[in-house]
């Protein structure tokens, strides 16, 4: 009995050593990330637009490509735009721009118009997926002037549109300042709903 009491006491002592005293800084790896982020945004040390732009580029394909001399969306382009629309729906405060590009074949003036047609085709498709047109802009066409591949020949990788975060609804630049926790909470609710659905399906299968 004495032996077990000693072991139990040692376990309590070891466990107690794992906790910090009240008032000590929290480990930023687990706590305070949202607060630190909001503080940095409000102080001007960090741009939430830049953060969202980086996250969008990392999590969703931002580029679709086109056939030669065409603004038609093929199956792969629509699939990518579906993924973009799903991501964009998470952030109703955010605006996006779609930039159109072409390869170097053809006149510069024609390619500029073609690039804009491509950007508008992408915007129109996103609207059909439930994204408000007020949040989408096909405001620029770089035509042939910003190729990914330097060539005067036909090149599909240059015939593209690129979707990017551009700002915030109604030009409210700080619309999401102080709301990073709310964004994380939206993600949490979405993931919880998905788990719940899976659980329900599993129960039905049984």
Commentary on this structure:
InterPro entries: Bact_OuterMem_StrucFunc (IPR050330), OMP_bac (IPR006664), OmpA-like (IPR006665), OmpA-like_sf (IPR036737). With 206 residues, the protein is of the alpha+beta class. It has a domain at 49-190: 60s Ribosomal Protein L30, Chain: A, CATH 3.30.1330.60. The chain has 6 helices and 4 strands; from the N terminus they run αααβαβαββα. β2 (94-101), α5 and β3 form a beta-alpha-beta unit.
Question: Main traits of this protein?
Answer:
60s Ribosomal Protein L30, Chain: A; 206 residues; disordered C terminus; 6 helices; alpha+beta; elongated; 4-stranded mixed sheet
Give the N-to-C terminal Cα separation: 48 Å
Structural class: alpha+beta
Low-confidence spans? 2-23, 195-206
Which CATH architecture of the domain at 49-190? 2-Layer Sandwich
**Overall 3D shape:** elongated
Run of helices and strands: HHHEHEHEEH
Number of strands: 4
Average pLDDT, to the nearest integer?
77
What is the alpha-carbon Rg in Å?
25 Å
Q: According to CATH, what is the class of the domain at 49-190?
A: Alpha Beta
CATH evolutionary superfamily of the domain at 49-190: OmpA-like domain
**Annotated CATH topology of the domain at 49-190:** 60s Ribosomal Protein L30, Chain: A
Main location: membrane
Protein name: OmpA family protein
Domain OmpA-like: 53-169
Subcellular location: Cell outer membrane
């Amino acid at each position: 009995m004495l032996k077990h009491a000693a072991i139990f006491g040692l376990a309590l002592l070891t466990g107690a050593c794992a906790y910090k005293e009240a008032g000590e800084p929290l480990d930023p790896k687990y706590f305070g990330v949202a607060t630190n982020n909001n503080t940095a945004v409000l102080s001007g040390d960090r741009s939430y637009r830049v953060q969202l732009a980086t996250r969008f580029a990392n999590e969703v394909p931002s580029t679709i490509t086109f056939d030669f001399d065409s603004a038609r969306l093929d199956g792969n382009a629509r699939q990518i735009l579906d993924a973009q629309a799903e991501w964009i729906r998470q952030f109703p405060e955010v605006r996006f721009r779609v930039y159109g590009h072409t390869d170097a074949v053809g006149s510069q003036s024609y390619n500029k118009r073609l690039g804009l047609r491509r950007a508008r085709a992408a915007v129109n498709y996103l609207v059909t997926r439930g994204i408000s047109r007020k949040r989408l802009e096909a405001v620029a066409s770089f035509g042939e002037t910003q190729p990914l591949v330097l060539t005067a020949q036909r090149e599909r990788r240059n015939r593209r549109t690129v979707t990017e975060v551009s700002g915030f609804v109604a030009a409210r630049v700080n619309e999401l300042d102080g709301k990073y926790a709310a964004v994380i909470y939206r993600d949490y609710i979405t993931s919880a709903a998905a788990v719940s659905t899976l659980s329900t399906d599993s129960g039905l299968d049984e």
